[in-house]
């Protein structure tokens, strides 16, 4: 069995880098491309669909996605139609420039909060603007799992975790697990 090698281990709940506002990337360099490739390996190692650079200990505005096509492909958002065929995909300095007023609630988990899931209410669709590694700029309305993943990962760039968006009653249900995760993380330097 092949072991995936990653240079940047995933940081877990309690790691200070997860609470920092990540810095903009002024230019796409070989270092940024290498970081994106390593992030894809880390994401795949833990069966994720997205990961942000702060989650691997690098406070930069870089996110990678590998969102699968939905089983029902009939009603894809423009972003799903354009971006899902390009997966895995890295985006530089991404931003959400608009959000729908319609909301939906779904359970979320996180590679930095392993084993903990809770319902989070988010807009059903968002408009993502970002630069790709080839320097081109994209702007798409994203819905479905991609839209939710965009919101979750861009939160990481601002030091926000999905656990911060959980309703108070639900947060109480996971508080003990979060405390245990943070305590065990301290022993491992908050590395998975």
Q: Can you offer a commentary on this structure?
A:
This protein has a single domain (16-186), classed as Alpha-Beta Complex (Peptide Deformylase). It has four helices and seven strands. The chain has helices at residues 30-45, 78-83, 144-157, 168-187; strands at 50-52, 62-65, 89-99, 103-110, 113-123, 126-131, 137-142. The radius of gyration is 16 Å and the shape is globular.
Entry keywords:
single chain, 192 residues, alpha+beta, Peptide Deformylase, five-stranded antiparallel β-sheet, two-stranded antiparallel sheet, 4 helices, 26% strand, globular
Break the fold down into its secondary structure elements and pairings.
Layout: H1 30-45, E1 50-52, E2 62-65, H2 78-83, E3 89-99, E4 103-110, E5 113-123, E6 126-131, E7 137-142, H3 144-157, H4 168-187
Antiparallel strand pairs: 1-2, 2-3, 3-6, 4-5, 6-7
CATH class, please? Alpha Beta
Assign a percent range to the helix content: 25-40%
The overall number of domains is 1
| Rg from alpha-carbon coordinates | 16 Å
Short characterization:
The protein has four helices and seven strands.
């Amino acid at each position: 069995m092949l072991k995936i090698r990653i240079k940047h281990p995933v940081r877990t709940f309690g790691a200070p880098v997860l609470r920092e506002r990540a810095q903009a990337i002024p230019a796409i360099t070989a270092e940024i491309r290498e970081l994106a490739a390593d992030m894809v390996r880390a994401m795949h190692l833990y069966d994720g669909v997205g990961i942000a650079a702060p989650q691997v200990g690098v406070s930069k505005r870089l996110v990678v996605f590998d969102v699968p096509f939905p089983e029902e492909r009939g009603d894809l958002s423009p972003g799903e139609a354009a971006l899902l065929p390009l997966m895995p995909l890295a985006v530089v300095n991404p931003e959400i420039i608009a959000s729908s007023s319609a909301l939906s609630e779904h359970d979320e988990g996180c590679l930095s909060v392993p084993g903990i899931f809770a319902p989070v209410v988010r807009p059903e669709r968002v408009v993502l603007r970002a630069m790709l590694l080839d320097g081109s700029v994209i702007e798409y309305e994203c819905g479905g799992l991609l839209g939710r993943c965009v919101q979750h990962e861009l939160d990481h760039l601002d030091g926000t975790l999905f656990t911060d968006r959980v309703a108070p009653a639900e947060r109480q249900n996971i508080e003990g697990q979060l405390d245990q995760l943070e305590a065990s993380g301290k022993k491992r330097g908050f590395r998975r």
